[in-house]
Amino acid sequence: MIRSLMIACAASALIAPAYGETLDEAVASAVESNPSLAAQRARLDATREQLPQARADLLPQLSASAGATRTNDDFGSDEGWSAGLSASQLLFAGGGALASVRQARANIAGAIANFESAEQQLILDVASAYAGVRQAEAVLTARETTVNNLTEQLRYAQAQFDAGLVTRTDVAQSQARLAQARTNFVQAQGQLSAAVEAYMRLVGRPPSELTAPPTAAGLPTSLEDALSVAVRENPGLLSAQAAEESADAAVDIATSSFFPNVSLTAGANLSGDFEDGSDDFSSDSVGVRFSWQLFSGGATLSRNRQQRALRSAANFEVAAAQRGVREQVTTAWTGLQSAQAAVVSAREQVEAAELAYRGIRLEQETGLRSTIDVLIQEDDLLNARLALAAAERDLVVAERQLLATMGVLAENTPRP
């Protein structure tokens, strides 16, 4: 009955699919349907359009025009038409057009890094939510077991009291512990419901029989290996480096304003009268256009200084990102080592606590242990089980946190 209540509470009145689900399947579903990642993907697509726009300035520009007019004056009316075709090709712009292409490439690289960062964060969040649901289920199961054990202990204490072998205090102790266990069980139900909702927000569907996730693939064998990979792959660092390249290109764009623009131009025009075809007129032209801004009130110099200052800021941000990546990877590596040790210790603690609990129950039946001894050991066993659930959850997250700081979580997460 309690198990059925647990399942009903976890589902939160939602209909879940009747099949087991792996972490890889949850990640695939989240990557495919998560709206936040879809928005980031759309921003990446928009940023990619900067490159063809920048390249357009290096290609020929062609335009056509046509018009018709009617003129009325004291001598009557005149109706005419005109058409024209013009073309231009940029020959020299002080390097500004090429710098714009470089800036567009850098912006795209930064957008790709930002998308990869968002994708890896989503995968990490899904892994955390997945492990969180499993932890909440394990906690609920442990508290359910405790309620069952304490219910049996209360029956035993009551029977012993009725037989005159123990005092009312023993019964009261058992009743108090059972009441507290039932309260904790109800709270665990609420925690499981919250974990289910967090999972649904990321994955888009309720969890169903989540299987134990395997050890993450691609984990480094040493901190030095992790740091060397992070220097090449960490999306935060790549984004900062792309911003530095974009800022450098922006300086060249601003500097190009000090140079002239030279373009090759060509045009053809045709005009005529609607009533008299003999007045048709045509003209063709080919030439070179030269323009050079000689004075702008100091705006050009100011923009150049501004972009150089922004480039300096981008250089410092790259240095800060490098330091941050080293700190993050080192912290994640240490966290993984601690999480692995915690799981081993917690499993040993559960085994020892279960053995001790069985022994104390047997000793109680022979009169060697009191009720309070059994209740204390029951509490120790529950704490050991809760610690194991938390340690297993932390290990799942720690493995993927390290891969995320290295920048390789997405590529080491299989998609079914």
Q: Are there runs of 5+ residues with pLDDT below 50, and where? A: 1-18
| Average pLDDT figure | 92
The total domain count is 1
Instruction: Please identify the top-level CATH class.
Output: Mainly Alpha
Number of strands: 4
CATH architecture field: Up-down Bundle
Trace the largest sheet across and list its strands: 1-2-3-4
Tell me, briefly, the overall form: elongated
CATH topology: Outer membrane efflux proteins (OEP)
**How far is the N terminus from the C terminus?**
36 Å
- Biggest pleated sheet: 4 strands, antiparallel
- Overall radius of gyration: 37 Å
Layout: helices, strands, pairs:
Layout: H1 2-11, H2 23-33, H3 35-48, H4 50-56, E1 61-73, E2 76-92, H5 96-162, H6 168-203, H7 223-233, H8 235-255, E3 261-273, E4 281-291, H9 299-365, H10 371-406
Antiparallel strand pairs: 1-2, 2-3, 3-4
Helix pairs in contact: 1-5, 1-6, 2-5, 3-5, 4-5, 5-6, 5-8, 5-10, 7-9, 7-10, 8-9, 9-10
Descriptive overview:
The chain has 416 residues and is α+β, with helices and mostly antiparallel strands. It has a single domain (2-10, 18-59, 93-260, 298-406), classed as Outer membrane efflux proteins (OEP) (Up-down Bundle). The chain has helices at 2-11, 23-33, 35-48, 50-56, 96-162, 168-203, 223-233, 235-255, 299-365, 371-406, and strands at 61-73, 76-92, 261-273, 281-291. Strands 1-2-3-4 form a 4-stranded antiparallel β-sheet, with no helix packed on it. Helix 4 (50-56) packs antiparallel against helix 5, helix 5 (96-162) packs antiparallel against helix 10 and helix 7 (223-233) packs antiparallel against helix 9. The longest helix has 67 residues, at 96-162. It is elongated, with a radius of gyration of 37 Å.
